[in-house]
Design a protein that fits this description.
The chain has 154 residues and is of the alpha/beta class. 43% of the residues lie in helices and 19% in strands. It starts with a helix and ends with a strand.
Length: 154
């Protein structure tokens, strides 16, 4: 009986110790709208569905810097991105899709605070579901040290 209890304890500990999640951090710098839609908006949904079919969670973080600031402004027509016609013509639906990533899929967005002034951006110019961090390098280091797989989106 003791051996059976010990075996049960070992198996239970092993099963509870199994991590039922995967983690990924996207290093988002692209200013290309098609790349952003394909590699962030569509890819994350597909990847989430894949892991869900395997009864696993996919924990997604996106670190925003470089050309990608444009997708996370409250109103790009009031920023340096006001001449980006493709962005402006798609922004209303794009903003909803990005917010849905945060609300429905639990994607966490982190923006490099160090580069914001270079683009004339302040915290009030950024959508509320984005967390501003000191810089992108710190965000990427932290996530990779937490076990997140690294995916660049240049």
């Amino acid at each position: 009986m003791q051996k059976l209890c010990l075996l049960f304890l070992i198996v239970s500990t092993f099963l509870l110790g199994q991590d039922s999640s995967a983690k990924v951090v996207y290093d988002l710098t692209t200013k290309n709208l098609k790349t952003f839609e394909r590699k962030i908006l569509k890819s994350i949904v597909a990847n989430k569905a894949y892991y869900e079919s395997k009864l696993k969670e996919l924990d997604v973080a996106v670190v925003i810097h470089g050309g990608a600031y444009r997708y996370f402004t409250v109103d790009p027509s009031k920023t340096e991105y006001k001449t980006d016609k493709a962005l402006l013509s798609h922004y209303a639906s794009l903003k909803k899709r990005i917010k849905s990533m945060a609300d429905t899929y639990g994607v966490r967005f982190f923006m490099c605070g160090a580069g914001m002034p270079k683009h004339g951006l302040k915290a009030k110019d950024i959508v509320k579901f984005v967390t501003i961090i000191p810089n992108a390098t710190i965000g990427l280091i932290d996530k990779q040290n937490e076990g997140y797989a690294y995916i660049p989106i240049p």
